[in-house]
Amino acid sequence: MRAFEHRAVRSAEEAVAALQADTAGETSVIAGGAELLSLMKANLIAPAHIIDLKPARELRGVSVAPDGSVRIGALTTLADIERDATLAARLPILPAAVRDAATPQLRNMATVGGNLMQRNRCWYFRGPYDCWLKGGDQCFARDGENKYSAIFDESPCVAVHPSDLAPALLALEASVLVVGPQGERAVALGDLLRPPTAERRRETTLGGAEVIVAVSIPAQPAGAHGVYLKLMDRQAWAYALVSAAAQMTLRDGQLVERARLALGGVANAPRRLPAVEAALEGQTLTPALAAQAAEQAVAGATPLAHNGYKVQLARELTRRAILQAAGMEW
Amino acid sequence: MSVTRMFGASVKRREDPRLITGDGMFTDDFKLPGMLQMGVLRSPYAHARITRLDTAKAKALAGVHAVFTGKDLEGKVAPMPCAWLVPDADLKVPSYTAMATDTVRFVGDAVAIVVADDSYIADDALDLIEVEYDELPVVTNQEEALKPGAPQLYSDAPNNQAFHWKFRNGDADGALQRAEVRLKQRFIQQRLVPNAMEPRSSVADWNAGAGELTLYNTTQNPHIVRFLISVTQNIPEHKIRVIARDVGGGFGSKIPYYPGDALAIFASRMLKRPVRWTEDRRENFVATIHGRDQIIDVELGATRDGKMTGLKVTNLANMGAYLSLAAPGVPTWLFALIVPGCYTIQDYACDVYGVLTNTTPTDAYRGAGRPEAAFLIERMVDLLAGELHMDPVDVRRKNFIPASAFPYTNGGTLSYDSGDYDKSLDLALKMVDYEGFRQRQAEARQQGKGKHLGIGLSTYVEVCGLAPSKAAGAMGFQGGLWEPATVRVLATGKVIVLTGTNPHGQGEETTFAQLVSEELGVPVEDIDVVHGDTSAISMGWGTYGSRTTAVGGTAVLKATLKVVEKAKRLAAHLLEANVEDITHDHGRYYVAGSPTKVKTIQDIALMANLAWDMPEGMAPGLEENHFHDPTNFTFPFGAHICIVEVDEETGETKILRYIAVDDVGRVINPMIVDGQVQGGVAQGIGQALYEHAIYDERGNLTTGSMLDYTVPNATQIPFIETARTETPCPHNLTGVKGVGETGTIASSQAVVNAVCDALAPLGIKNIDMPLTPEKVWRTIQAARAGGTTGS
Amino acid sequence: MKQSIRVTVNGEEHTSEVEPRTLLVTYLREQLDLTGTHIGCDTGQCGACTVMLDGQPVKSCMVLAVQADGAQVGTVEGLAANGKYHPIQDAFWEKHGLQCGFCTPGMMIAAVGLLERNPDPSDAEIREQLEGNLCRCTGYQNIVAAVRSAAEAMRAGNAQPVATSGASGAGAAGGVAGGVAGGEEA
Predict the structure, then answer these.
(1) CATH of the structural domain A224-325, one choice from 3.40.50.12280, 3.30.300.20, 2.170.190.11, 3.30.390.50
(2) What is the DSSP code string of C17-74?
(3) What ipTM goes with this model?
(4) Any CB–CB contact under 8 A between C127 and chain B?
(5) Closest Cα of chain A to C129: distance in Å?
């Protein structure tokens, strides 16, 4: 790792000020450090200045607002989420999502904000290749090693977002609270994590001087059940090959009142499945309907040479997640 | 006072107190005054010519003491040696310099070294070295490399062939021609990365005034390293001391003497200061030897009622870019001779081709040749059973060498010392309730619901306890494989045991103490076993090949018995009796019939060291040594059974039960032996389900970190049920056969046999390791789509 | 440009000058001479470097020393207290939970972290919580047995949380208030 200066700040606003002041763009913000240090050790970034948010204690914690929405501070660790009583009671899909993420030690350090902002794990991106995402001309994964790459083609880059938390938050229709030079704003998670474009060669739309301060989850309907399923090439400490998050609300037995579904590991950003949700809502859930819905989930998939298996996994995990969230045998 | 038997007792380990308090002495823990840190610049290309190498900026960085390149080694450091020169194999040994001079031949090949105040500055300096390369065509697969027109690594190794080694016994061709049933199968032994948890490390301390080198090194064999340094760096052998106090796992990967070690020594000599080098894990992945990587074609002949009659094997072994220290012996001698396994096959032919490619060099990795052998024969037995619609148990029994036939010369001309294969199989089948399982499996298949259940057997025999020195020489191994021991009883009755083996987790600091305690009657806590220091004992051949107890322990026992003999004679003198009248009972010497007039071993030790009253002709002191050269290898054997459940929708395999029945001869410490089996099986399961070192077509190791290469974690290894039968080794005094590698040798095929058994109704006969969910799923898909698959 | 940090390690306060890029594991091994914490990889995968940071196991190769400023750190050297082994050390010795010993310090700290939150874990829970600690020697079986044995001993007796020393009394400093201890999964 190259040498750098380190400064601790007491608030997100201080961090924003530091980012704004650095016109050379050589400042990074550190929360838990799990992602930042891995990027620095791989020589992907070499900031001259690191702003440490650790003293900003008000950014850590889970609280419930009067309207029933749940606010999770950006410095809340994944371990906090795993253990939080409020989340266990109200949004159990979140502890389920992080339980298999990384390892216990990393969950103790890794934060919600850092988890959403993490870069992809594509072997070419993380390695000494001047790939498209890094400003080069070519995406090497398209014709190379693409076993872990996206099966939906939405960008010149085919790397997937590695977060477990994000698909679950997406299924909860979470929004992200951001502080920047213009003050505070809320952005839907689905608008924060977006496929990279030629002008924006990153996985997020966060501004250069912006800092995430919290995630906000709207109150869920009574009787909603959430399930997070994941398949990995190895059983733990690996990014999901594919994951499926399902938040289902059923009435009168098997009638689907509301369905919210998201897939991880299949696209540049976690992928909501609005067409599948629409097909399920108002219907009586049966194994056949779940299988049909699962088929729809992978409609339009364009697998690359080595990741066709993900289509099968996405289909199968969607089917299982729907049925499991509905309390049915899968 | 009651006496506890030590041989066979699960005594708590003497190694543990320092290890559980963080007071272990691993090589990177050593700090010497004035010590500097070395970093290595490695080639990012698999095959290239170095066209420009400019170290000026690196040299100029504050805190950097020196930067060296390949040219600086000329005349000072000889190429890295290969010490297993297999005879009659048209062997070509390419020159392997510690740093490349004009051509790099694998990603990870060393190009330059920097020596700096600390590792952070060393890393900064490495970034400042300017290198330009002209890429050359790359070949990573051994089959491709042998073809005409393939990229050539060396002008003097045409078609990249390093050797062609042959073995013939009887008439395999004839037997196959006459066979009623002929089966052909290709097996891929995928490349593995050993991944000992401690990365490799060297601290080289050159004392210029004395002309002496002290090297702290993570090695399994310090004396071999000492010898190799002496012949490559022009330092006389007696001026070198190699210390390997605590070594964090080896599994074969710490047998070789590596470029990194040679370069640390070179740097220390040049700078006249201690130099420490510790690889990081990414370096370990590319610059520490890899295991396996063999493509094995098998043809088996048998009768229609399941008797195996002939066997032909061709092994294409990927040696990597250079021949590592012991590498040529692994896919040849250590593999071929044990291929017939527990069976009576005599007509057998084996051809092994060692092939050079632009990949990390391969060498011995836990089992070293024997896992590959056991895998192929146990898989062929199951394929034969499938072909003939016979129970795989019955095929095995039909072909086992019967218990009455030992010693038995197998189809590989090895003389198996002792064995009872039916007995261990019987026990394993009973433990798993084989009939009950088959019934449950049949019911599940009828119902057609749920996941696929399968059971896999592996009845193995292996060859270890390396080795009779004569055999070593005959095989081209450039060393002996005898082992010395010294047992030294001090004046206060404490005992020091010196050994040339170097256990690194196998527990001999405890088991050797148990051996000595059993004979001498000295408590285990009063016995210190010293290893890992070339100054401690004259010579030794190290710890690998499951030899430490079988060979080293036998030497210790024999030296101990010499001590007992001398003690008896001194006791007789002190008790004024004849030596024939002396009874020795666990450290108590007395005249038979007068048990109250006792001389303890502590009394005798004191008297021996004071030497006030020695019998005529007896030297003072109480210390004996013994040099033990085994008369044969040893042949542990056993039966492992694995039960799996395969999920058709995801391809995931879950191990429901794993049973290991092993016969490793006599057992000194059952707890330690169980631990070796568990650890060995874990590595075999790793190969079967998870691990694979993969190169892309440019020679990049795409699985170059623990993130991409699956070293199994605690959720991925099942509970392993262990049991034992005991058939002592008849040709060494301890009766011990060795257990360090049996778990790995037995297990991969038990898992694969189980999965293939589970998927047999789909017509699936073989799946290549590792059986990842994706691979299994694809195989199932292909089978459902209407083709049976062979691989 | 070095920075001054104040870190309490095994109950003893240290004031040190470190470069910001110095990893916590390097600081412990090279500056404080606490070589019991090992480096097995450099990218947070193997867990050999696990230490307690404000009462929670973390990978010290993925933490900067400056991030530990003002924090309590517990290493393997701090496990034993008042001349007695911590129950986890006793258990690892008793149950043969180590072979080469390289992964052991990190493994024990991770196990203590688990047991301090979940005093009666099932074998499956033990294995899950040790996912972040790789061992190449044991196959994990005796490690699980050791953790189970330590759990029993700790439920029966009492052991100091690892982040503090014996002298200052119970209670880990810092860390998250509240939170539910890990239990059976839904």
Answers:
(1) 3.30.390.50
(2) EE-TT-BHHHIIIIIS--TTS--S-SSS-S-TTEEEETTEEEEGGGSBGGGGTT-EEE
(3) 0.97
(4) yes
(5) 6
